[in-house]
Amino acid sequence: MPVPEKNRSFTQLIEFEIEPGQQPALVAALSRQTERLAQHHSGFLSASIQASDDGRRVLNYLQWQTREAGEAAFQGFESGEQDFWQLIRTHQAKTVTFGSFQVLHSLELSHDQALHCNLVG
């Protein structure tokens, strides 16, 4: 069954493969860039930056209210103060994988430890 467009959120996943010595600087740079995106683009919902234990991968997860909001923010990411392509070169990324996803189901744990299921549709 199709999910109504108005109820869908949009997620961007960007995975970096790097040399372990580059991980702390890349995480810091992505943190700064993600904060700028969140402050300057409407439709921002959440973000996380995750680092692998072996130091070789970093995952940047960004969630937006709509696909349009995410795509507009990414255009800003490409041409911002430290553009995205410069970020890749500076931190010597071996590979960068992009993924875009519509969120159809999510779970949340509330402050009172209750589990909330959000089925979109």
Characterise the protein shown here:
The chain has three helices and six strands. The strands form two sheets. Strands 2-3-1-4 form a four-stranded antiparallel sheet. A two-stranded antiparallel sheet has the order 5-6. The chain has 121 residues and is an alpha+beta fold. It has a single domain, classed as Alpha-Beta Plaits, CATH 3.30.70.
Which helices and strands occur, and which strands form pairs?
Blueprint: E1 9-17, H1 23-40, E2 44-51, E3 57-64, H2 67-79, H3 84-90, E4 95-103, E5 105-109, E6 115-119
Antiparallel strand pairs: 1-3, 1-4, 2-3, 5-6
Summary?
With 121 residues, the protein is of the alpha+beta class.
Descriptors for this entry?
two-stranded antiparallel ribbon; Alpha-Beta Plaits; 3 helices; alpha+beta; 121 residues; single chain; four-stranded antiparallel beta sheet; globular
